[in-house]
Amino acid sequence: MKPTLVLVGRPNVGKSTLFNRLTRTRDALVADIPGLTRDRHYGHGKVGERPFLVVDTGGFEPQAKDGILHEMARQTEQAIAEADVVVFVVDARHGLSAQDKEISAKLRRSGRPTLLALNKAEGLNFAVVSAEFHELGLGEPHPISATHGEGVRALVEDALDLLGEPAPDDDEDATAGGALKVAIVGRPNVGKSTMINALVGEERVIAFDLPGTTRDAIHIDFERGGRQYRLTDTAGLRRRGKVFETIEKFSVIKTLQSIEEANAVVLVLDARQEISDQDAHIAGFIVESGRALTVAINKWDGLDPYVRERVKADIERKLKFLDFAKFHYVSALTGTGLDALMRSVDAAFKAAIANLPTPQLTRTLIDATTRQTPPRHGVTRPKLRYAHQGGRNPPLIVIHGNSLEHVPESYRRYLEGVFRETFRLQGTPLRIQFNVSANPYADRKKPERLRREKPAKRGSAVAKPKKIN
Predict the structure, then answer these.
(1) Tens of pLDDT, residues 89-100
(2) Less Cβ crowding at N or C end of the chain, within 10 Å?
């Protein structure tokens, strides 16, 4: 599971700027206005080969007794309780404040591993500005500049080092015969808990016709068809504006962690509700995470043919980017279609961890370029020479050649379709990476001795050598 780094600090110290720097996005609003961030933001970060989740919280004011500041403080305290590492951000230019002392006291009482980040430290004498922050009792301050990126990598590496070595790869355990971890995700009240109960064959989780019944990720181990599974029933992911209670807010973090931890994911949709933007957002997060995916359209029983056709057309239009996944129309209440659903889950994970031989990949690439050559870019045409597998779960195919930076996105999609069909990679995202072969002689100058002088034109005056008597 990816570790979670939670950014904590008083308002306007640069937490959102640091969040955007870590996630390489602009998801968090940034302005010189205290208290701009009121809700939490969550995203992916990576330093080297070490991925993590990062959470941006609102300005922490522990003494707030009511109003929006009190709600923001409650959210931050819950985030601290669920963090693997807390990054306490302070303002080097403003200096130590009474509020910083209150926050540090709370962090020490929480017992969570904590690093002190001294932001906006660019151009300052660090030994001078950091002296007063030692009294917080949180160890050596880390000088950083969230705006310019100075010291940020070292800060994150130190934070991840506090957690020790990462856990063994769960994909290898599943391949070796261990339990296949399957996360059941979707909006609230689409029937996730009912589906879990139908698969297990008993009432293991509360299923109730009320959105938000499940608020934590629940793990259930069971055996089906001679294979061990570990199902994770997650809390429903709502739109950000619809998440009000603190408990629900940080159930989202657990859901994202469950997706990261899973070997495969089942996205549950409600056939009796319109496919929403939030369904597409959840699907996008799963694809971004690279997890094997199967889609279950629940509550299919009892719908008339016209409604069914309309639902299928809605799915085709709004979830077209999931064309690699298998769709199943099921009823969790009656158990209809669940056997085929689980077979697709097995097949999707098998595709995600498939070994793709280099000779076969290269032959497939050559056949694909022969049938349809890449379009020209100016006077040149990209030359795709050979391919090999660069990773699994999801499969990564690395293609080598010349001028590959000019391959258009449409041709990339064409190649993805060819590879997917040839190697039967249904149910898993597929990544294609182009590696351009550099010309080793491009920057070398021709040796002086190999340069030939142009012959003089006929009739031109040429100096004759002097005779030596």
Answers:
(1) 999 888 888 888
(2) C
